[in-house]
């Protein structure tokens, strides 16, 4: 809650949410940040972000997660969105094949604008809608393997693997960052 917001933290990590419109990015973020977050609306730059404090290996990490706030519709997600980001959650909707096909394009953009060491987790969201599935779990998994990404299927609606997806990303960022600081 607000109290923990002022706590001294050992690390501050910025991470971004990326993917087509309506794949569930903002719902994933509000799931993850629920009860412990502060959602700051920044209408001037068209970006939302939320914070959450997490303990990893006895270190207090303040994770600042950015959401595109609908700007991806206008192709207005620019280099400033990616600047300083150490991680990305790349989200597609398992019931819409095009959102999965567009992962290549998002990944390309991420690699063009983002840090080369960025930790990327691929999330196939809406796993609760298995009956309307257009993307097999295997397709997601093999794309992730090919591109060297972590992979999970999530459901923001049913709260499945949401915590895991963010925690995997943050833990990995911590590993990469603490290795660099050795
Ligand atoms: P964004 O544009 O990527 O931020 O997507 P939103 O979070 O706004 O979600 C778009 C739509 O998908 C909304 O109608 C949500 O209720 C729905 N949605 C998001 N996540 C899930 C999910 O895991 N399962 C289901 N069934 N619907 C979802």
UniProtKB/TrEMBL annotation:
Provide this UniProt record's keywords sorted from A to Z: GTP-binding, Lipoprotein, Membrane, Nucleotide-binding, Prenylation
Keyword Mitochondrion found: no
MF term (GO), any = GTPase activity
**Where does it localize?**
Endomembrane system
Domain of life according to the entry: Eukaryota
Q: Provide the membrane topology annotation.
A: Lipid-anchor
Q: An example Gene Ontology cellular component term from the record?
A: endomembrane system
The answer to whether UniProt assigns keyword Aminoacyl-tRNA synthetase to this entry is no
Chief localization: membrane
Family designation: Belongs to the small GTPase superfamily. Rab family.
Q: What is this protein called?
A: Ras-related protein like
* Lineage summary: Eukaryota, Viridiplantae, Streptophyta, Embryophyta, Tracheophyta
């Amino acid at each position: 809650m607000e109290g923990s917001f002022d706590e001294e933290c050992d690390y501050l990590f910025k991470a971004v949410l990326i993917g087509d419109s309506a794949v569930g990015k903002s719902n994933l973020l509000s799931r993850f940040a629920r009860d412990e977050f502060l959602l700051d609306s920044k209408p001037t730059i068209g970006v939302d972000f939320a914070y959450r404090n997490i303990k990893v290996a006895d270190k207090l990490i303040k994770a600042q997660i950015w959401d595109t706030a609908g700007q991806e519709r206008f192709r207005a997600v620019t280099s400033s969105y990616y600047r300083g980001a150490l991680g990305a959650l790349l989200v597609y909707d398992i019931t819409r094949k095009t959102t999965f096909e567009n992962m290549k394009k998002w990944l390309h953009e991420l690699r063009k604008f983002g840090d080369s060491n960025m930790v990327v987790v691929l999330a196939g969201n809406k796993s609760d809608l298995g009956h309307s599935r257009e993307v097999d779990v295997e397709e997601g998994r093999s794309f992730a393997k090919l591109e060297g990404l972590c992979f999970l299927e999530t459901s923001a609606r049913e709260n499945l693997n949401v915590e895991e997806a963010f925690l995997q990303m943050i833990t990995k960022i911590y590993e990469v960052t603490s290795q660099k600081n050795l």
